[in-house]
Amino acid sequence: MPDNSAAIVIDIGTTNCKVTCFSCLDATTLGAHKFVTAKQISPQGDVDFDIDALWQEVRQAIAQLNAASPLPVRRISIASFGESGVFLDEHGEILTPMLAWYDRRGEEYLATLSEADSAALYDICGLPLTAITLPSKCAGCWNITRCVIAAACAGYMRRKCCSGG
After folding, report:
1. What's the rounded Cα separation, in Å, for the pair 90 and 81?
2. What is the pLDDT of residues 70-90, one digit of tens each?
3. Which interval of the chain is the signal sequence (predicted)?
4. Residue among 15, 4, 81, 25 nearest 54 (CA)
5. Which of 17, 73, 74, 163 is the most buried (most CB within 10 A)?
6. How many CB atoms lie within 10 A of CB 42?
7. What is the distance between the alpha carbons of residues 23 and 30, in angstroms, rounded to a whole number?
8. Where would I find the H helices in 5-106?
9. How far is it, in rounded angstroms, from Cα 124 to Cα 127?
10. Cβ(86)–Cβ(95) under 8 Å?
11. Which one, of 3, 24, 17, 151, lies nearest residue 87 by Cα?
12. pLDDT band at 141, cuts 50/70/90?
């Protein structure tokens, strides 16, 4: 049975982001939107993606492509070359910066790992540990914002313990 729907593909790139709508029937392009990836650069040269600006641009692009598509959009796919992420609290609020995929702020953490720890993390994520793989980036985020995360965790635990839930 032919698929007469559309898919929106989001490609978050280091330099640019592309949001494109494709026909699922024949993969023709139905529309596209491209914008510069928003970044925040510290005086030390550390690069964090500006997640709020990025999210607003992506939302606007999705809305525009969905409105202009001659076919109903039934799928959204996200692609990215490098891994980046943020820690969220239980309400979806962002707790940490979104480090660039090439960020190396977790290097000190890697030096503290035993071979057993490295092997265990490899078993979990399937990648050899380097300064730019996700576990070391998470450690970098942790070192940057550990007080914020600890406070959020303490508040969560307090609610769980005090509410009986």
Report:
1. 27
2. 999 999 998 876 667 777 777
3. none
4. 15
5. 17
6. 9
7. 7
8. 51-68
9. 8
10. yes
11. 151
12. low
**Domain extent for 13:** 1-81
Q: Within 13 Å and on the Cβ side, how many CA atoms surround 72?
A: 3
- Alpha carbon of residue 60 to chain centroid: 18
Is the full-model pTM beyond 0.70? no
Within 21-100, residue ranges assigned H as helices are 51-68
As given in the structure block, the two tokens for residue 147 are: 């007080």
Max CA separation in the chain (angstroms): 56
Whether residues 95 and 164 fall in one domain: yes
Give the integer Cα–Cα distance in Å for 98 and 65. 26
DSSP type of residue 88: B
Q: Compute the distance between CA of residue 124 and CA of residue 148 in angstroms, rounded to an integer.
A: 26
pLDDT at position 25 is 95
115 and 101 in a common domain: yes
In this predicted structure, the answer to whether residue 140 has a pLDDT above a threshold of 80 is no
CA gap 93, 34 in Å, rounded:
26
**Residue type at 125?**
C
What amino acid is encoded at 95 in this protein? L
Contacts of 164 (CB under 8 A, 6+ apart): none
Burial of 71 (0-12, 13-18, 19+ CB in 10 A): middle
The secondary structure element, H or E, covering residue 154 is: helix 134-163
